[in-house]
Structure formats: C-alpha cells, structure tokens
Amino acid sequence: MFRACAVALSLLCATAWSAVSRAEAAPPPLSAYGALPSISGVTLSADGQRLAFISVVGDDRRLVLQSVSGELLATIALGKTNIEDLIWAGPDDIVILASVVSALPEFGNRKRVFWTVQSYSLSKKRLLQVSSKVPNAIGGVFDRPSVRVIDGEGYAFVRVITVNPSPRFDLARVSVKDGSVSIVDWSPMDGLGWLIDAQGRAVGRARYNEVKGNWSAAVRQGALWPDVFTTLAPLDSPYLAGLSREDDGLVVVVPGEDGVEYAKVGYDGSVSAALPDDKPVHTLIVDPSTSRVIGAVNVVDSSEYRFFDPVAKTAWASVIKSFPKSRVHLTSWTPDWKKVAVLVEGPGNAGVHYLVDLAGRKADIIGDAYPKVPAEAVADIRPYSYKAADGLDIPGYLTLPPGREAKGLPLIVLPHGGPAVRDVLAFDYQAQALASRGYAVLQPNFRGSAGYTPAFKAAGYGEWGRKMQTDLSDGVRALAKDGIVDPKRVCIVGWSYGGYAAMAGVTLDPGVYRCAVAGAGVSDLKRFLSWRAGRSGDSSETVRTWNRFWASSDENDPRLEAISPTRQAARADAPILLIHGKNDTVVPYEQTTLLANALKKAGKPVEVVTLEGEDHNLSKAVTRQQSLEATMAFLLKHNPPD
C-alpha cells in the first residue's frame, strides 16, 4: 500500500520535521545509514496499471508487485541475491536481472561477476530461470537484457557465451512464459552486443578488436552485417548507445580528446549529428522498450534532464515543478508519459520514491530509501570549490554536521572511486553517517574526474599519486584558511580509487592526516597491472587505460614504485585501517594483504577488516554495516570529533 501522502502536483509534499531541534536531537544509529536502501528498482508497467520494486530488509530482497492504486498483488522472496534491474514484459510478467560472483572452470576458475535472468508470472505465480534455458551457455548473460512484447507475448533477448564447438556470443530470444529459446544471431568473441528495436529485431551490433584497437558498428541487411562505421580507438573506445529518435539509424558515442561526439549512423552508412542541439551531455536517456535515445542528462551539481519529444518534455516540466528546491531523479515512466516514478531528495530528505500521476494531478509516496534517517538528521550538503596549488579550480561538495557551527570542525576527506567518475550533490550514506557524528566531510572532484571538461579529465593523466593526490590536501588547506575546519584534526576515508587515495594520503603526501581508512584500494600498482593483464590481456583497453593514468609503459615501469603505497610503506606517518571484501573481482584482496604486510614490516600501525563474501561495491547489508562501524570506531579513536 502507498503511504498516505497524495499531493496536488502544483505543491511540494513537504517532509515533516521533528519538533526536536537539530542541536538537541541524538543522531540515528549507524545502522540507519549502513542499511541498504529499503526500496530500489521502481518500475512501471507499460499500461500504467502496475508497479514493481525491490524491498530490502537486512540482506533479504523481496520483489513487490502492486497496482498503482496500492493493492498488493504479490511478494516474492529473492533471498540475498543482488538485484540489478526489473523490467516488465507485459502486464503479467516481470523480468529480474541479478548479479552473482562465481569461479567457473571455463573462465580459469577466477572469480567473476555474472548476470542471471529470471522472470515472474503473476498469473502462473512462479519464477522461471530464463538465462539458464539457452543450450550450451556458460557463465551468465553479458548485458542488460532487452525485453520486448511481441504479439502479446514477452521475450527477453540475452547475450550469452556458448560453445559450438568454439566459444562465441549468441543472441538468444527466450520466452518469459515457458522458457522456449531461439537463437537470433551470433558473433565472434570480439562482439560487444546488439541493439534490439521495438519489434524485437536485432538491427545493430558492434565489435572491438582490443589488440589492434579497431572498433566497428554494423547494421543488419538480410543475413549480412555490413560495417557502417569504423574507427581506430586504442583508448576510450566508442559504444552503441541506442537507436536514433527517428528510428533510422544507430547512435554511436565517440569519445575524443576534444570531447564526446554523438553520431547518428544511418542504416545506409550516412553519419550526422544524433542530438538536436549541442548542449552539454553527461549521459543519454534510452527508452528500454524501444532502444531509442529520447533525451539526455547533464550534471552540474545534480541531474538535469531534457527530452527531445514534446510530450515527454512537458510531462517532465510538470514533475519537477511539483518538487521545488529538491533533486528529482527519473526511475521509470509509461510510454504515454501519464505516469512517472521518481526519487526525490533534498534538504531534510534522504530520498523518497513517488509515483506521479500527471493525468490525476497527484503524487503518491511509494516509500523512503532511508526510513530510519529522520529529516532533522539529514546533514546539509553544499558545493565547495577551491584552487589547487597550480591554480586549477577543483569543484567538490561539503557536508556539514547538523547542529554545529561551521567553524574549526574536524574533517574527513572522502574522495570518490573511479577515478574517472564524479561526486554529485546527493545524499551519500557515508558522508551523512560521518556528519551525524560531528565531522565535516569534503568530497572533492579532483583532476581526472569525469563529468567536467575533457581538459579537466586529461589533467589527471600521469598525476595518479601526484597532483591528483595533492588536490585533496589542497582542499584541506582551503577549508582551514576559510576557518571551517581545524587542519590538525583531519583524516581521509575512501573506497576503490578513494581507498588508494587514503593509502597514498599517509604515505605519499605526509603531514596532512591523523589517520586513514582505505577500502578496496590498489596498493601495489605493478602487481595490480600484472593481475589485470592476466585477466584481460597485455593489449587490453583496460591495461592501456591504467598506463595512461599512471604515466607508465607497462607493469615493469620503475615509475610505478614511487606511487605505490606498498612500496612506500616505510613513509607512513599515521595509522591506517584497511577494509576489503574477499569476493572483490575489481581489485583483488591481495592488494590489502600486500600493504598490511609492508606496514607491519616497517613497524607502522595498521588494522585490517576482512568482509567475508563481499564484492567491490559493498552490495551486502551486513558487511556494509561492518565496514561503516569499523570506520567510525577507527575515526573516533584517532580523530575524535569532540
């Protein structure tokens, strides 16, 4: 059932504030922040009559199906499986995409993340394993499935590896009702996948020869696949984003030194601009039911959506007008744009899912993302920019502790992962948890971060462990100069690349931090590059990308030693807490062991927390909570906020 909060669309559904002031309220328990979002994957059926989402309690996931009026139709226990997406296949069937970590002999018994596909039928009240129905398939599926309704029946189009007798990619069409399979097409192992149009036809596909750097896009002409677009891309290879909004070609995203080109490659091989304007684009909006590109998102501080279709454009304008001074994120919509599902967050709001009925002029609350974080506990987050030592402008975000004056505060520097991603103005459970205990939190978008200009991203090349690192400590100095923080009460906390930055903060950039918490970080660049090459090949784009960031030629480049915390462990000038999941397939657990051993050998203080069964993304509630509690205990010990 929906929570009782239906509002007129011209008004904001304001979050109720507690009568207790921020200064007096006790902070919520860490479990309120460390829990996985209680609701995710909200999606509307095409007819606008049904709603599906994942409900999470602890590590247990449940698929919830209900009518848009709030009538519960079904709840299905899915266990502790990581659910990645939900897709309706008609009004009766829902497709469930999940991820699992497995070590299969066909993949050298190395742990890898595989995707699996199931479907649930409301009328038959049963789950069906979809991806396992494909004959001779190994592993799982290798893309988000395209789901289409053809002549009233739902089908999932999945890309799998089969052995026939040699390995190849097959595109299989699987009925979500009975699991019957037909092979639509196949490609060699350098295939990157297919685009499926609204009628369920494979109309475009791409291939990439990593060794030579050759990328190509092809269109279907009868039984043939002639190339219509080719380019040399040893780094930053293009990708197929979707079909053109006119449905007369492919949309190819082509990164380059001067920015990203969005090209429409017609079925006849003609090339033209894919977008109607040259406004900034962070990502494209693709209709999952047709593969058509229907809009774009630009990120300044938060997501700004624009749509090419006038109906969608008008509908979205009405939606965002209903939630002033809030950040509105699109999660699902009906083809006629009469119903839209959104996640809304902002001041005093940790995230609320709404079902917006534009025709009925109302918005119903589906549920809260973090129901145990009350409005008065949501810390203020604001943009904060400063200059690096070389004059480069560094944007970022500052979260301030509730009820405390922004003066002389203890600080946690929280660099993002990637590194070629960015932080945005949004509720961040780690930053909010830290702020709830009295810390200011700086999330800098250091050079090398994506989402700004090509020059800003390129400024990070060769600066890993160098200017990318001092960009962080320059932020500390800027905040201290502004009087906001006490420069003698600073620690650094990070995950993935942020974990590396935390390690490097106390080994390569001394005298700044009282302690460091490093999660799933790379500590020995040579060993990591060797491991990565063993999985994807010496000539893979992934290896070339790391060499570009590190300004290295290969795994034996002597320059890697100077920016490897493990090799510089004797320089550590503050205690380090290392946290890592044993099921990490992105950064191997070995990287934590290497640094821990080096620090112990050098007589430096180090603690290690091992997250059993956890992956690189902190996908499990119990280990996410374990990580947060260990982090907070370490910070309170070495950098108490009071």
UniProtKB/TrEMBL annotation:
One of its GO terms (molecular function) is serine-type endopeptidase activity. Residues 427-638 form the Peptidase S9 prolyl oligopeptidase catalytic domain. InterPro entries: AB_hydrolase_fold, Peptidase_S9_cat. Keywords: Hydrolase, Signal. It comes from the Bacteria. Residues 1-25 form the signal peptide. One of its GO terms (biological process) is proteolysis. The keyword Flavoprotein does not apply. Pfam families: Peptidase_S9 (PF00326). This is Peptidase S9. It comes from Caulobacter mirabilis. The lineage of its organism: Bacteria, Pseudomonadati, Pseudomonadota, Alphaproteobacteria, Caulobacterales.
